Amino acid sequence: MAEALAARVSDGLWRRPGLLLLLLVVPPLLWLGIVYLGSLFALLAQSFFSIDEFSGLVKHEFTLKTYGELFRASNFDILVRTILMASAVTIGAAIVAFPIAYYAARYARGRWKAVFYLGIMLPLWSSYLVKVYSWKLILAKEGILNWLFETLHLSWVLNAYLAIPGIGGNSLSVSWTGTFLVFLYVWLPFMILPVQAALERVPPSMLEASGDLGAKPGQTLRYVVLPLALPGIIAGSIFTFSLTMGDYIIPQIVGTSARMIGQAVYQFQGTAGNIPLAAAFAVVPIAVMGVYLTVAKRMGAFDAL
Amino acid sequence: MTSAVTFNAVSRHYGKVRAVDRVTLDIAPGEFFALLGPSGSGKTTCLRLIAGFEQPTSGTISIFGQDATLTPPYRRPVNTVFQDYALFPHLSVEDNVAYGLMIAGEDKDERRRKAHEALELVALSGFGARKPSELSGGQRQRVALARALVMQPKVLLLDEPLGALDLKLREQMQGELKSLQRQLGITFVFVTHDQGEALSMSDRIAVFNEGRIWQIGSPAEVYDRPETPFVADFVGSSNVLPPEMVSGLTGVSAPASLRPEAITLGSGELKGKVLSHAFIGAATRIEVAVPRTTLNVLVAKDKPVPPIGSEVSLDWSRDALHIMERADG
Q1: Contact across the interface for B73 and A211, Cβ inside 8 Å
Q2: Could you give the strand order of the β-sheet that contains B283-290, starting from the edge strand earlier in sequence?
Q3: From the CA of B95, how many Å to the nearest CA of chain A?
Q4: Architecture of the domain spanning B5-231
Q5: Using the beta-carbon criterion (under 8 Å), do B80 and A212 form an inter-chain contact?
Q6: pLDDT digits over B290-327, tens only?
Q7: What is the ipTM of this complex?
Q8: Which residues of chain A lie closer than 8 angstroms to B78, CB-CB?
Q9: Chain A within 8 Å of B14 (Cβ-Cβ)?
């Protein structure tokens, strides 16, 4: 009986592929449409309200005043600092990831490919907080990095570097360089994997054809490999850029006391209770990503897709 | 005169596998030379050795008298048409064709002009602005050809360039490649597993098997006078008669080849039983079981086809039986 019913259901679905598609697609669409986009629009709406400075209550009237506040020097610094950090992390990740991804896509086979995936994914299996705190210890004044520099009698190099204003500090763990290094480490897999996937799709004959037509390896890299890897680099940069812009844990644990967007959002919606300003801050990464992707598309970054 | 390409006892081993095993060959300038063989026979590896994508394990290669054994591909006066065409997907057709010129540092106008000329040569003028993904298989093949020819190579290497095309287009391209080669006078080295293609297009053919060359010769030589049973079987699927049978017929104990189209039915001493039919258009191929082997026989269209299971007598003219005295395969 149950068997006959199952057979009728599967036959019915086979005859109406549209119905099957509907059943598969509706739940995620509801999730995406209501839970995700709904809350995003709620957030957007909040950013057009403002807060009453005397009562501390949200005034539910349309205003651009909250966005105006973003341009106050102390707030604007946070935006600039965050975007600079996200850009630096993205560029750094692209530079570090490319050779690794290239090796994995072109040369690693069988067991070595498994080792590669394991090496990339393993850090993702352990807790993010554990990794960040480990880095704090590594970068601390009493940490292993300092010890290494001392042992090699190179402390003067580190000290000279730390004396550089802006990126230096008392020790690496309280400097912007430290924040950068931890971000770079934590988001690196998100750059390696898409770049590797893009390079994987480049057939070896493409590189041979370039050499065959007279291009030296460097020229092949520049005119063939990089353009074909670009969609992967862009995909990876979406991760590294937006993840860095939104993070509020890493800059809190490693780095200076100056805040990034994520921390500002966290404080304004929490302790300060200024939901509209928190919302306006949260809109900035979305806007930046929108502009970034538009420019990338205009420049032909997705032509090879 | 110096040869276009010379292989001197060239081997290429991958671990224990001998992809190319002590191959010696000479390709003359202006020649249309085919490397023919089944897959895995070493013909493509040989082509890649000429292009420089592979380095020989031992032996030397020279191109127009210049030793090229260790020369990287980008310094060789040869260009390749790849089996999968290997067009750059991010570049337009024109930029694909002009790629080599761009690398060589030619100025923009010159590049454009030459790319247009090359596209005209392969009957694709007007397609320059398209992307490779917007072209059909045959058109991509022509772009790959134009991209190689625009470099004015001394030797053009073609790696099964027609393999992905349908029959009609393939026959048309065979004719076009051949006339292009005559027109340009460039040495063509052509890899194929299709014996018909090799026979109809080339000046000379090298038949490969298991990393070695079994025979080099003109299409007629290779077809009519195969030196080994492998060549006889692979080129034109000839009947290979076992030595015991040949010694009974001629007194010489060596394998012999006998073309299916050389056998006539009706009279003759050899008798056999028809096993199967296959209609192949211009004729019908029948399989006949005779003592010690089975023979393929082509029955022309105007002749009656004996039914399956019937007894037939087979005959052939004396010189149709080609005795192969080389014992090595």
Answers
A1: yes
A2: B293-300, B283-290, B264-279, B311-315
A3: 11
A4: 3-Layer(aba) Sandwich (3.40)
A5: yes
A6: 988 999 999 988 888 899 999 999 999 888 888 887 65
A7: 0.85
A8: 212
A9: no
Q: What is the pLDDT of residues B80-128, one digit of tens each?
A: 999 999 999 999 999 999 999 999 999 999 999 999 999 998 889 999 9
Domain boundaries, chain B: 5-231, 254-323
- C-alpha–C-alpha distance, residues B282 and B274, integer Å: 19
CB contact B64 to A (< 8 Å): no
**Nearest residue in B to A207, CA atom:** B86
State the residue for tokens 């990095």: A145
Residues within 8 A of A (CB atoms), B 95-114 only: 99-100, 102-104
pTM: 0.82
HSE of A233, CA atoms in CB hemisphere, 13 A: 24
CB contact under 8 A, A212 and B90: no
- Residue A254: count other Cβ atoms within 10 Å of its Cβ: 26
* Domain covering A72-298, topology: MetI-like fold (1.10.3720)
Residue A162 pLDDT > 80: yes
The closest CB to that of A213, out of B79, B84, B89, belongs to: B79
The hierarchical CATH code for the domain B254-323 is: 2.40.50.140
- N-terminal to C-terminal alpha carbon distance within chain B: 33
Q: Angle B121-B127-B131 (CA atoms, 0-180°, nearest 5)?
A: 125
Query: Is A212 within 8 Å of B79 when comparing Cβ atoms?
Result: yes
> Which of left, alpha, beta for B209 (phi over 0: left; psi -120 to 50: alpha)?
beta
Q: How many CB pairs under 8 A join A and B?
A: 64
Contact A208 B147 (CB under 8 A): no
Looking at the complex, report in whole angstroms how far the Cα of residue A199 sits from the nearest Cα belonging to chain B: 13
Confidence of residue A302 (pLDDT cuts 50, 70, 90): confident
Extract the tokens encoding B266: 């009706």
Nearest to A203 among B84, B100, B102 (CB): B84
Q: How far apart (Å, rounded) are the C-alpha atoms in residues A8 and B16?
A: 57
In a 10 Å sphere around its CB, with 0-12 CB exposed, 13-18 middle and 19+ buried, how is residue B258 labelled? buried
- HSE-up (13 A, CA, CB side) for residue B170: 14
Strands B32-36 and B187-192: parallel
Residue B257: count other Cβ atoms within 10 Å of its Cβ.
26
